[in-house]
User: Which sequence fits this backbone?
């Protein structure tokens, strides 16, 4: 497998900045791709060892392009996650003033994070989406648009200047990125892990979603993300992307996944990996009755009952 990581490019994206925070990135060739789909396809075809892409932001939730690519196609596995604080700059060609700006561009995920600023300062500007924030900066450099919302660090790369900086509608906004590779054995649990799955209902009936969520709730597993995505099979047909606290090697998580496998039409396991928001071993205390020791003790009790040793 080539020692390279694909990422959502071009150079100068928040994705590249987040990727470079991973120690292993220093030992890989980092190759920009024009879209999330092409970066993930590079892994599926063997062109890259792994791909690094955005998957969620704290303002708008899950990034649907990435979720849909992980839901469909050849299975992939999430190995790592990175959280990056996000603030935007308005990048323009030298000499451009705020009154000159008639068109702006950025990645679609940026728009909800700057919507109020845009309404207050450029209410008449036409917004058009770009493949990435850095690609938006490139398009401004080429004269296609007047301004782009991107990281201030991208200005020098594209010969632009930051007309405004520290732009954000929500304080402490963050984007979550994931390192995705071909299916492999999950890393050992750290005591602060996350498990991601995609669930398809067997049929549509009252309480169907409750049944799915109940497999987690009855085992004391907290959900961190729940997002529905259309399956393409018609209006009302959805699958559910779920992030849950815990690791597949935890008895409670393993039993929850077994329960889901029994009642779902399909379950796609996307990986168990360390959480980026807390240190190893820093997960919240488990609810009574949900530790591995308690699951093992309960299993042993059932065995003894079966053997007449109660």
Assistant:
């Amino acid at each position: 497998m080539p020692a390279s990581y694909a990422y959502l490019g071009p150079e100068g994206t928040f994705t590249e900045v987040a990727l470079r925070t991973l120690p292993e990135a220093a030992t890989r060739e980092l190759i920009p791709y024009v879209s999330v789909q092409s970066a993930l396809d590079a892994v599926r075809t063997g062109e890259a060892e792994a791909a690094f892409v955005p998957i969620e932001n704290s303002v708008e939730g899950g990034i649907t392009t990435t979720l849909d690519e992980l839901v469909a196609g050849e299975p992939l596995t999430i190995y790592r996650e990175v959280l990056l604080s996000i603030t935007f700059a308005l990048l323009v060609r030298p000499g451009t003033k705020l009154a000159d700006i008639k068109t702006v561009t950025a990645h679609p995920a940026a728009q909800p994070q700057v919507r109020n600023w845009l309404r207050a300062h450029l209410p008449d500007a036409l917004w058009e989406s770009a493949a990435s924030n850095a690609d938006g900066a490139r398009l401004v450099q080429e004269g296609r648009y007047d301004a782009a919302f991107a990281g201030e660090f991208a200005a020098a790369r594209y010969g632009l200047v930051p007309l405004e900086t520290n732009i954000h509608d929500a304080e402490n906004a963050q984007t979550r990125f994931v390192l995705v590779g071909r299916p492999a054995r999950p890393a050992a649990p750290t005591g602060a892990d996350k498990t991601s799955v995609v669930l398809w209902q067997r049929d549509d009936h009252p309480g169907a979603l409750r049944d799915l969520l109940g497999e987690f709730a009855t085992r004391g597993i907290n959900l961190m993300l729940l997002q529905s995505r259309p399956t393409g099979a018609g209006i009302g047909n959805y699958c559910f992307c779920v992030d849950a606290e815990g690791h597949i090697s935890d008895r409670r998580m393993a039993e929850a996944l077994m329960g889901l496998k029994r009642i779902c039409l399909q379950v796609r396991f996307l990986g168990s990996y360390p959480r980026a928001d807390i240190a190893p071993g820093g997960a919240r205390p488990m609810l009574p009755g949900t530790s591995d020791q308690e699951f093992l003790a309960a299993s042993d009790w059932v065995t003894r009952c079966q053997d007449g040793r109660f």
In short: The first strand starts at residue 4 and ends at 8. The chain has a mean pLDDT of 93. The CA atoms of residues 218 and 256 lie 9 Å apart.
